[in-house]
Amino acid sequence: MTENLPPCPKCSCAYTYEMNTLVVCPECAHEWSPADTAAEEAGNSGERVVRDSPSAMCCRTATAWSS
């Protein structure tokens, strides 16, 4: 199995692995979906989209919320 998985977006570790639909980093334990990461990179305009359900957009805000 020689898949090219992306490195971890948090710590840049190259030794990521798949677990169901997620990609997992063994060094920092970050878990993410490659589809979500690709969508964020494609539409990253500094604007934050808030959704009230997985597919319904309810508002947009230009200020980033603290996590």
UniProtKB/TrEMBL annotation:
Residue limits of the Protein YjdM N-terminal domain?
Answer: 5-33
Q: Which Pfam families match?
A: Zn_Ribbon_YjdM
Q: Which domain of life is it from?
A: Bacteria
The record, for Gene3D superfamilies, names:
2.20.25.10
Tell me the protein's name. Answer: Protein YjdM N-terminal domain-containing protein
